[in-house]
């Protein structure tokens, strides 16, 4: 295992990826972002499947990509392992044969490769699958074997490309826990691409958020998800976010509305976001009066089950602010019935200023 240092520039006709990132030895770095943000392109460059137009990729002291110097180490020679959404096991090989394949390709003796494979299969709770071929395994079992196979060549860098996305809901929690245990025990440097805040929280030390091919947020996982600075991060963290600029009373929204909130210590006019949980949003059929300082007319766009509550998703109401699109409120099923809240209904969202946190904004607000 070794550290990663990368600056990746990839140009396409309608898109440019320009990302700098580092991962320390033994660190797990999560890369989050909406579809089209550049996550797959970044992973392709790190794996050696794509050549960057500019920049470099270094694993420890070894440069594996540098267009200016004419360096491009092919995938099978750069010490990178990959665990993708689909296990992609060799169908004609047993679990043992699949896991031993990588070490054997490196020139390791059959005996040593099979010994390493048995140890890894045991580590991923798949020892009893050693003699089975993929057709006789469940999806979760195949993914366990695929994890062992990815680790078997002892890669300097492990790439995890949404490794839980194809699993059913029953297999996902166990595989998530297994990934954390095995990757941590190996001290493995890894880059995890995921759409799941829970995957990032459980597996990653730090998070990088991409939007439009650029890094808009980065930092320790819990800090980034607790204090999101971009709409995408707020959505995956399950929070409401309003972009704008800092003002003395909180946040000045794009239409001039003031969103009252807790002082973030920001300079007036500085790009900022107001963040609050959907559970803090009260919903009324008529405009409320009294303590809430943030009262917003909205139209119900969607009604979604969300655990023990119902999540109302907002759209702009006629004559109301456009920036309420996508805001959410969590209320009880009884409250939904009492309000007569159905798609298209006009209601009022109210949030107390004490529930709204004002933070500095990320580099992008889309």
TrEMBL record:
Keywords: ATP-binding, Molybdenum, Nucleotide-binding, Transport. The keyword ATP-binding applies. One of its GO terms (molecular function) is ATP hydrolysis activity. Residues 1-237 form the ABC transporter domain. It holds the Pfam family TOBE. It comes from the Bacteria. Residues 289-360 form the Mop domain. GO terms for biological process: molybdate ion transport. This is Molybdate transport system ATP-binding protein.
